[in-house]
Amino acid sequence: MNTPCRLRPFFSVVIPVLAEEAAIDAVVDHARVVGYGLDVEIVVVDGDPAGGTLRALSRPGVTGLTAPAGRASQQNAGAAAARGENLLFLHADTRLPAGAFQDAAAALAAGATLGAFSLAIRSGHPWLRLVAAGANLRSRFFFLPYGDQAFFTRREAFFALGGFPDIPVMEDVAYARAVARAGGRVAVLPGRAVTSARRYEAEGVFRATARNLALLALYGLGVSPRRLARHYPPSPRRPGERAG
């Protein structure tokens, strides 16, 4: 008896990148290790129109495309190109917990419209442990995870809500709120997505924390994301840094 072929991948992992030449192979390898044995598609979306990160990508079997720079634009373009029935959006400096895809699929099967993982920050700084703990409390009590916690959702639900709004910052907050307004359920899983501390280290941990809280508060008060983006510089990249 022949086993029918899966027409769509189990998950499509959409990775928005910009100037991630040194890290891109490690990101792809990580997603494949976590998804070992599963039908996982990887879509890399470069915000550089010249495709600098795509040219540095040496792993086969990856769908690569360019889109206007900005996580919302890039992630929407990646979702449109993806074939998976489930989507997971992975920032290039974030790493997934073991069993991430199985746990995400279980959460979606249990009725979650949007899911994310708990947050950990790759740093020994005690303040950043408090920042991660605060983020996890916010996620669970206010159903408001951030994109560095690796959003996942069903493809159908994502497009029914219009994808990420085309704004330069806060697209993750806006999407989570859209889910809530539509009556959807947000699930935050206990497994930890581990993200880089590079922005905190570059700007200073206290300054970066205060800036993030101020931006979230101002956005909640109705300040335009385009105005807020002026105070949110591009993520730093040290020469030769690998995000693994």
Task: Give short descriptive properties of this protein.
single chain, 244 residues, alpha/beta, Spore Coat Polysaccharide Biosynthesis Protein SpsA, Chain A, 8-stranded mixed β-sheet, 10 helices, 40% helix, globular, disordered N terminus, disordered C terminus
What would your notes on this structure say?
With 244 residues, this protein is α/β, with parallel strands linked by helices. It has a single domain, classed as Alpha-Beta Complex (Spore Coat Polysaccharide Biosynthesis Protein SpsA, Chain A). It has helices spanning 24-34, 52-56, 71-81, 100-109, 126-142, 155-160, 171-181, 198-203, 205-220, 225-228, and strands at residues 11-17, 40-46, 63-66, 86-89, 94-95, 114-122, 152-154, 186-196. An 8-stranded mixed β-sheet has the order 3-2-1-4-7-6-8-5, with helices on both faces. The longest helix is centred in the middle third of the chain and has 17 residues, at 126-142. The N and C termini lie far apart (42 Å).
What is the secondary structure topology, with strand pairs?
Elements lengths: L10 E7 L6 H11 L5 E7 L5 H5 L6 E4 L4 H11 L4 E4 L4 E2 L4 H10 L4 E9 L3 H17 L9 E3 H6 L10 H11 L4 E11 L1 H6 L1 H16 L4 H4 L16
Parallel strand pairs: 1-2, 1-4, 2-3, 6-8
Antiparallel strand pairs: 4-7, 5-8, 6-7
CATH fold type:
Spore Coat Polysaccharide Biosynthesis Protein SpsA, Chain A
CATH class: Alpha Beta
Number of helices: 10
CATH A-level architecture: Alpha-Beta Complex
Secondary-structure content class: alpha/beta
* Order of strands, widest sheet: 3-2-1-4-7-6-8-5
Low-confidence stretches: 1-5, 238-244
Provide the succession of SSEs: EHEHEHEEHEHEHHEHHH
Query: N- to C-terminal separation?
Result: 42 Å
User: What do the pLDDT scores average to?
Assistant: 93
In terms of DSSP E residues, the strand content is 15-25%
Q: Mind summarizing the main beta sheet?
A: 8 strands, mixed
Rg, Å, rounded: 17 Å
Shape: globular
Q: Please, how many domains? A: 1
Helix content: 25-40%
CATH homologous group name: Spore Coat Polysaccharide Biosynthesis Protein SpsA, Chain A
Total beta strands: 8
